[in-house]
Design goal:
This protein is α/β, with parallel strands linked by helices and 137 residues long. The protein has helices spanning 2-12, 35-54, 67-74, 117-136, and strands at residues 21-26, 60-65, 87-90, 107-111, 114-115. The strands form two sheets. It has a three-stranded mixed β-sheet. Strands 1-2 form a two-stranded parallel sheet. α1 (2-12) runs parallel beside α2 (35-54). 13% of the residues are buried. This is Carbohydrate esterase family 16 protein.
């Protein structure tokens, strides 16, 4: 799977597209970690480093690992309360997307597995921070 992703980046970096800037956003695990997933993330990261340092011309790559957010919110350090959430449960516990959620701005998930509008804002801010750090290097 990591090879497939890296292969697509290699393909896009060649003519006719000649892409040079790539952002990879990874949501692996959503708060859970295992050896396979960690190995996948490391393989992707290693491949991106190689693209950036050994390609000619080199590629600009950014890797936004959303595990940073999931671990911070769903874990105990700092935990969901530090982000202003009232629970790690979904605001809408059902499977119907039209069901009303009385307080969506204080839940990480709108319904299970799908971040709320506010959580998406946290994710967007994180991506912007990753991109700013990439420009600083």
């Amino acid at each position: 799977a990591a090879e497939d992703l890296l292969g697509q980046i290699a393909l896009l970096s060649k003519p006719p597209t000649n892409a040079r800037d790539f952002l990879i956003a990874d949501v692996y695990g959503r708060g859970a970690h295992d050896a396979w997933g960690e190995a996948w993330v490391q393989s992707v990261f290693n491949g991106l480093v190689e693209f950036h340092t050994q390609s000619s011309p080199y590629l600009n790559v950014a890797f936004a690992n959303f595990a940073t957010i999931w671990d911070g919110v769903l874990g105990s350090n700092p935990g969901y309360k530090a982000f202003g959430y009232v629970s790690t449960d979904a605001c809408n516990p059902g499977i119907q997307t039209a069901t009303s959620c009385p307080d969506p701005d204080h839940y990480f998930y709108w319904f299970y597995g799908h971040p709320s509008r506010v959580a998406h804002k946290v994710m967007a801010d994180y991506v912007n921070e990753v991109l700013e750090l990439c420009h600083a290097l």
